Amino acid sequence: MTDPNLLMIPGPIGLTPQVLAALGTPQRGHLDPVFMKAFGSALKRLRAVFSAPAAQPFVVAGSGTLAMELAVANLVQPGDRALVVNSGYFSDRVGRMLALHGADVTHVRAEPGDLASLEDVERALKGGGFKVMTITHVDTSTAVLAPVQALAVLGRANGALVVVDGVCSVGGEALDMEGWGVDVAFTASQKALGAPPGLGVLLASPRAMETFRARTHPVAAMYLDFAEWLPIMQAYEAGAPSYFATPAVNLVLALDVSLGQLLDETMPVRTARHVALARAARAAWAALGLAPVPRREALLANTLSALRYPAGVDAALVKHVAAQGVNIAGGLHPALKTTSFRVGHMGSIDAVALLGTIAAVERGLRASGYGFDVGAGVVAAQRALG
Ligand SMILES: *Cc1c(COP(=O)(O)O)cnc(C)c1O
Fold first, then answer.
1. Among the four 3, 155, 161, 167, which has the fewest Cβ within 10 Å?
2. 65 lines ligand 1 (CB under 6 A)
3. At 128, is the pLDDT very low, low, confident or very high (cuts 50, 70, 90)?
4. Where are the alpha helices (DSSP H) in 145-266?
């Protein structure tokens, strides 16, 4: 493998040579015409990637957590009620953030690896008066995939703005932001969008922007305030110079190239590729006796796998796999930290990268003293790939 490490963690992910080349171009100023054009192009491309032609995109230097805080700070005012459909670590994070920004927060929780039923969520929504409902599309700590479309219908029917944490999904899982009635969806550059870490990305529906404009309290953080960023995003799309805070120039160049590659593949083909690779990965894990953290088939994410260590195997597995040149991740959810590990399978990876990862996991399992039929995972994945 030419890459010294195959990066199969749930973000950051490996970069294509074209994205890497964009990152390494000579530094330009933030008002350079080439940069202004690329920024405008990235904003337009985001509407296509999110399937949200009428939405307002924001790209701000920071990580996914910044994008989450943009959503919270601009939509919530002190005393507003917020419902968190909680599927793990990142749902807990948005809950804490909502509370910090003054919201009255209710969680609909489930056991780790599970998700509340639609009936439970509906019952909670009817309890009343929620301004915002948050959904973690794929919770990266459990690899639980939430049924965003069905949940969004319930949220809207009960008068809540639907906010989707798509940090581990956008660019890998199917998302039809406008068709599904999602008001805000956000992600970060380094996950399934396939760019380096450093950019928070958020799209706001017209309804979300109206809610923002109807605020009676100012946003109490200048760097988070849509009012500061909106004219900047509009100017870059119009190709006009403007400045609020210096954009991460080369990251935006890299993001635009990456988004171009996503759209060249086309979103339906890209999400189908993620489904096919995830299916092959699952066949491999089952053949190796590795149980998924998600408790039901319908909850299995396509962008990563979270797996329980089999008897006799522990976190040393991650190191044994790294020794094969493949990076996977340990557990993240507090209840699963020492008992599970995670393998990312999102971005531009192909069947051979996945098969190499499975082979490395097999070698790591063997080094861990685990007894299994060597090669069974690779064979099962090969068969699933057809
Ligand atoms: C990674 C992740 C985040 C946080 O993103 P950072 O870039 O690490 O700040 C939030 N939500 C989900 C679902 C994630 O996977």
1. 3
2. yes
3. confident
4. 148-157, 206-213, 226-238, 249-265
Closest CA relative to residue 58, chosen from 208, 174, 230: 230
Number of H helices, E strands in the chain: 13, 14
Q: Do residues 184 and 152 make contact, with C-beta atoms less than 8 angstroms apart?
A: no
Give the atom of ligand 1 at the shortest distance from the alpha carbon of 90. Answer: 11
Pocket of ligand 1 contains residue 63 by CB under 6 Å: yes
pTM: 0.97
Say whether pLDDT at 22 is over 60. yes
Is 186 touching ligand 1 by the criterion CB < 6 Å?
no
Ligand 1 atom at minimal distance to the Cα of residue 136 = 13
The reply to whether ligand 1 has any atom less than 6 angstroms from the CB of 167 is yes
What pLDDT shows up at residue 186? 98
